[in-house]
Every structure is written in C-alpha cells, then in structure tokens.
User: What shape does this take?
Amino acid sequence: KWMIWHHELVLRSDVRVSPDDRGYVFGDGIYEVFRVYDGRIFEPEAHFERLIRTAEGTKLTLPYDTASIQRRLEELLDREGVRDGTIYLQITRGEAPRAHPFPAGAEPNLMAYCKELARPSEAMSRGISAVTLDDIRWLRCDLKTLNLLPNVLAKQEAVERGADDAIWHRSGTVTECSASNVMMVKDGIVRTHPANHLILHGITRAVVLRLAKRLEVPVREEAFTLEELASADELFGTGTTIEVMPIVGVDGRPVGNGQPGPVTRKLQQAFEEEIA
Ligand code: PDD
Assistant: This one.
C-alpha cells in the first residue's frame, strides 16, 4: 500500500502519473529489480552500480544519490513488512509535452514499490522449458531501460508455444533469455555469453560466476552457438526472480537427460548458502 514517489514514502493510491511522463510516451527511463531475502536487499552495491551505468548510458541524471535511494528502499521494506520479495525501482526522464529531444528543466520521476514473492522452489527442483528465438533487440542490451517490448513479445511467444521462457540468439549465437541470463554446461565446463553490449550484466550471473570459481567449477565467458546448446549436458538461467533455474527442455527436445544436472544442482546449493 506504500510506495516511493520522488523521495517520499506515500500511499500508492495518492500517486498520480502525468500522461506527459516520458517513461509512458517514449519508454524513456531506466529500472532495477532488487531481490529481498529475510528483509534485506540482496547485492545492493551491484544493483546501484548498474543503475549508475545505465543512467550514464542513457544520459539520465539520477535525482538523488544512490545511498539515500537505498535508505528509502529500506524504509519502504520496513513499512510494508516485506521479508522475502522484490523491489521495483524506476526512474524516467520526467514530464514534458511530447518532443524527442531531452526537455529543458524536466525533473526525473522516481518511483519504487515492493512486494512479497516466494522463491520459485518447485520450478527450481523440476526445471523449466524454453524455446529459441531471434534476438531482435538493439545493440545496448547492457542498459536496463524501460524499452522491454522485445522481451515482452519473446516471453509471450514462449508462453503461446507452451514453454516457460525464450532463449535469444543473434545469427545462431546464444545471448540470454527474455528476463534472465543463460549458461550451458558441457563436460563439466560452464559457458556463458561475455558481459558486453549484447546482454544485460545480470547481478545473479555475477554471483553465480563467483560461486563457480569458489567451487572450482571451470567457467568460460565465451558465447556458444545453437548447435552447441543442442549438445549441452545442462542448461540453466540466472536472474533476480528465478535464481539458478534449470532449463530441461529446449524447442521440445530434452537438455541432457531432461533432468536438472549435477553442476546446476551444485550451483543452486551454493546460491542457497549465499542468500542464507
Ligand atoms: N530481469 N537479462 C535480462 C534481459 C533481464 O531482464 C534480466 C533481469 C537479467 C538478469 O539480471 P539480474 O540477475 O540482475 O536480475 C538478464 C529483471 C528481473 C526484470 O526485468 O524483471
């Protein structure tokens, strides 16, 4: 019932967004999704670093410093009593009559809300299915902007084809999923697309790579092809809401033996300990 609007905790029912908000008319804004475990924000520094990078990449000036935004988010969690859930934070370039150039003098609009969300335990133990789709996005997928139409269309196509998610590829090179990163395992080696302009630099991705190194699981940040994916022993997605999610079927064919594999399990276990 409470949310953050600009820099204040307000009742959700009191927030009014202008039809001139550039987030609304142009998708001209940026966002973050934070995970909350046991009342605490998971990996806040990494999320705020990414927010700063995205703000710089979109020439959007953050209206408040990230330390004070974080304090507000923590107040919000307290007020709402959320223990396990997510926080959605969005900042748009503000309100102005519709014209493409940046408006002079417009103040960015910041809003955030939190909600309870259970961990996807059942899906994590069973695994999910995916379809492969052409990655039709622009060339700055490392920026976490509000322009999510390709992501929405990909997820919808996956759902319509009876799958849980979409795995994107550019001319046969696998990039990521519609709202998560993707890693394959072959002969005990974890492979994932390098963190360049073609993927979002997932916070969960970074945590999982760190855990893999700690466990001495070999990791290669090298892109893989659809052919390599087809011969993968294991496949999994990583993301704020899905954590480490086994992908056990792709385009109607099983991955490996069609069950979550041992490397995936090991990383899930390590992730579990990391958030405990
Ligand atoms: N999605 N790739 C894309 C395209 C994403 O949208 C996301 C996150 C990720 C994973 O990043 P992280 O581990 O930092 O959550 C990768 C969020 C959760 C969303 O849009 O809802």
